[in-house]
Specification:
single chain, 137 residues, mainly alpha, 81% helix, elongated
Length: 137
């Protein structure tokens, strides 16, 4: 499938044009990585030390953080992104499961009024009893 797509895109192009497109693509990817590295470094060094007391990042640490996040959250390295077939099936499962799970919530108020308080009191009694037995030992 990929070979057919590439043949179709490069049909009628000279080898010089193809090499030029590949080089331009590589330059664009490297340029975006440099840009994202600086943006991540700037945002991290502006926010994280002030908010959470974390150390500041160097440029290469920011690039590494960007690469790690892409691997974990999707985009490259086969993480989070997944294949289209899997994501379509996953979307279908999520839609169906969330509808069935969400439809059960309409009974929550009624359950809490009828049984919630009694079950909560039983739970508190069990927890108190367990604490007392642990304290005795």
């Amino acid at each position: 499938m990929m070979k057919k797509s590439l043949k179709h895109k490069f049909r009628g192009k000279s080898p010089v044009q193809i090499v030029g497109m590949v080089i331009l693509g590589i330059i664009a990817v490297v340029g975006l990585m440099i840009l994202f590295g600086f943006v991540i470094m700037w945002l991290w060094n502006w926010l994280m030390p002030t908010i959470f007391g974390l150390p500041m990042l160097s440029y290469w640490q920011a690039v590494g953080l960007f690469a790690l996040s892409k691997c974990l959250l999707g985009g490259m390295c086969g993480g989070g992104g997944g294949s289209k077939k899997r994501s379509k099936k996953h979307d279908w499962d999520c839609k169906n499961n969330s509808k069935t799970e969400f439809s059960k919530w309409k009974y929550y108020d009624q359950f809490w009024k009828e049984e919630g308080d009694a079950h909560f009191q039983e739970f508190v009694a069990k927890q108190t009893e367990q604490k007392e037995t642990l304290n005795r030992e």
